[in-house]
Amino acid sequence: MARYLGGRVVQLIVIIFFISVVAFLLVHLLPGDPTYSILGPNDTPAARAELLRQLGLNKSVPAQYWTWISNVFHGNLGISFLTHQTVANAISVAFPIDLELIILSQLLAFLVAIPMALVAAMHPNRLFDRIATTSTYAMLAVPTFVIAVLLVLVVAVKIHIFPATGYNPLSMGLWSNLKTVLLPSISLAVGSVAIYYRLLRADMIATLQEDFITMARAKGLSTRYILLRHALRPSSFALLAGAGLSIGSLFTGAFVVEILFQLPGIGFQLIQAIDSRDYLVVQGMALVAAVAYVVINFGVDIMFTFLDPRIRRG
Amino acid sequence: MSTATPRDGGSLIVGVSSEIDGFLPSQSHFDNTGYIYANSVFDTLTAVAADGSIRPLLASSVVPNVDMTQWTVTLRPNITFHDGSPLNATVVVENMHAIITSALTAQAVAFLSGVKASGDMSVVFTCNEPIVAFPAYLATQVAYIIALSQLEKQDAQVPVGTGPFSYVDWEPNDHFTVAKNPHYWRPGLPHLDQVTYRPIISDESRESSLRSNTIDLMVSHDPGIIRDLQNNSSYQQVTDLHQTIGQPDMDFIILNVESDPLSDLTVRQALAYATNPLEITKLFGDDVLVPNTSLFPPGSIYRATDNGYPSYDLAKAKRLVAQAAPAHGGSLKLSLVDIPDPRQALIIQALQSMWQDAGFTVSLNQIQQVTYIDNLVEGQFQAAADEQFGAPDPDLNYVWLSPTTANPPIALNFARNKDPKIETALQQGRTHSDPSARIEAYQTVDKLLSQDLPYLWISRAPWSITGTDTVMNFANPILPDGTKAQGFSGGVFTPVPIWLKA
């Protein structure tokens, strides 16, 4: 187990190293003088000198990388040339929004998908199962941005239940916060509901054919008890694997949702920074998003090794 | 707008169309959102009245010497900044030194040769030539006066001004919140307790936010949205499409007259004859836009009765293309550049089609705004769709039109048109105090631009401000002397007079 974990940690470190190199080289890939590309033509020599100093561009490339990565480890990702805010501060504001969106959307997805799958698996090919299966096909087919626009039109513009845009942090109160993140979370959750429903339904139907379930039924246990205590857990591996894998794609899905709902998360800030050529913010946000992606996937992998001993043995 | 008695209190949420890069007038790039934010926390030395005249604001008087090369600005007494420090001549001088030495703003006030305090509350501005429109400059970005505490720290994030509201919080790309300044120097103002500005870049998202009551007031630049909200009785709307004060923003195509084949006047004439502004406004103006073929709008005193600008004539355009092509290798090729915007994309596609009908080969290119501006400044373009020229007085556009600013490395005269007759006319407008001489000067500029054709005019640039029925007085500001100020214009308003119905 320790050997397996050690190997995975080494892999993780190597991947993060390569990510950091690519993020570092972003500034070096700019054509010509990076200070010119970053500041534009009408800035002062003093500003250019300050940027050169900040980027360490007068040193060799490995030395520049070392300076940069040391700064990153000290939480110093530079200063936005657009807003004069530290990049670390911008990320500390943006990242929790993505995290909240992903957690809330996954909670919503599980809340809807698991009961649907349980009921459908209990009575396969009956009316509810057919309706649920057809609906999830539709959910998979509709892109997130279409769902988001529809939700805004119906729930925000027509019946004024939730705001169409904006974000209220948790410090403004739970309900105030939820009002601004529910529609974006639902937009993100719809695709996950479809996937989770289909994964769990298929596994549950297989599990319910197993001998130990027949035994449980013979013992006179209630259907609800059998479903929740005996069938759900062994049927959940594919569901958890699906959830782990989809968290990565939810990051990119969240980008679209953040733009449509004007939520100042990593995706929204990244697009604004790219638009305004605020390269240090792009560099910092890209680094954080990529590292978060691989760390989350690493966490999911490790979780599986605890849940399923076959993985660590294999 | 409303004649009812204003009610104090309440919070307003405003959807604005962009985010700014800071609150330092000498360093930050103020677009219309920049001006809206600045109007909330700062004051300028002067302000534009509804009749176009310039009136004192932080200044109590602005008085020239005989030849208008020196202007003495006397400040109102007993005005304090949000940090409690007093407004005096030293603060104004320090602010102006920052403006004069900044790479961003120096060219706009290049005529200034000195700024000195001549007493505790008076400042003398010395110009290297007569500047009759000098008070108008004091109503722009260069004359927002900030506290020494902000200036010394060069703090672009926390504004400290004398304005009606003081800084509470700025989270770039999310919100900028200000609270009522209880010590504001104008008695009884402002009425609101708090204003939160939310940059919502997409016009459609801003409209949805207004319709869902997420915001109370919004600025828009999109003709389709202006029309939709105009026709909805639930909202109140003001547009700037009928204002003729100074110069409104225009939508047009800039031609780089130093690039081949556009350095050839016959080629530019062919493009002008091939461009049909009426068709473009019909197709994309949503019944809001009307074509305009002048530097000035209809109704402006500076607009020539007939400026001689070429009217759409495809046959003539084809003849000119045939005439010019042999000198340019047999075919006329050019690229037209614009920022990535769905509506603009349609407009430049229509232009491409019109120009190709005349015999041009046209490629389209959309680039990010920041790169786009750099390319204009550096001359790395042939034709570019642009919007420009909004100013309280035509002299403020001197830097964009003068041959003296058409040289590398930083050419603010993007078209690089170096007609000496334009410089002569611009100088006449700049230095003659006789209004009729100024009118004649700018009418001459308009006519010369129609001959040189560095710009292909399309229409006025539309701006609107739309509020829910509880937001009162959002386009009817009053100046300290009791006269009406210029209301909403160029996407800019001031939150000072706004109040909310119970």
Give the SSE layout:
The complex is a heterodimer of chains A (314) and B (502).
Chain A: H1 2-28, H2 34-39, H3 45-55, H4 61-73, H5 87-122, H6 127-141, H7 144-158, H8 174-207, H9 211-218, H10 223-231, H11 237-261, H12 266-275, H13 279-307, H14 309-313
Chain B: E1 11-16, H1 32-41, E2 46-48, E3 54-56, E4 59-64, E5 70-75, H2 89-101, E6 112-119, E7 122-127, H3 134-137, H4 148-153, E8 165-171, E9 175-180, E10 194-199, H5 203-211, E11 217-220, H6 223-230, E12 235-239, E13 250-255, H7 265-274, H8 277-284, H9 314-324, E14 332-338, H10 342-357, E15 360-366, H11 369-378, E16 383-388, H12 398-401, H13 420-431, H14 435-452, E17 455-460, E18 464-468, E19 471-472, E20 499-500
Parallel strand pairs in B: 1-10, 1-11, 14-15, 14-16
Antiparallel strand pairs in B: 2-3, 4-5, 5-7, 6-7, 8-9, 9-10, 11-18, 12-18, 13-16, 13-17, 19-20
Helix pairs in contact in B: 7-9, 13-14
- Helix/strand order of chain A: HHHHHHHHHHHHHH
Task: Please summarize the sheet with the most strands of chain A.
Answer: none
Give me the count of strands of chain A: 0
What pair of chains forms the biggest interface?
A-B, 33 and 34 residues
Strand order of the largest sheet of chain B: 8-9-10-1-11-18-12
Shape of chain B: globular
Shape estimate of chain A: globular
Q: Which secondary-structure class do the elements of chain A indicate?
A: mainly alpha
Structural class of chain B: alpha+beta
Q: What oligomeric state best describes the polypeptide chains here?
A: heterodimer
The count of helical stretches of chain B stands at: 14
Number of helices of chain A: 14
Question: Roughly how many Å apart are the termini of chain A?
Answer: 11 Å
Tell me the major beta sheet of chain B.
7 strands, mixed
Mean pLDDT of chain B: 94
Helix fraction of chain A by DSSP (H/I, runs of at least 4): over 70%
Strand-residue fraction of chain A?
under 5%
User: What is the radius of gyration of chain B?
Assistant: 23 Å
Calculate the mean pLDDT score of chain A and round it: 85
Strand tally of chain B is 20
- Uncertain stretches of 5 or more adjacent residues of chain A: none
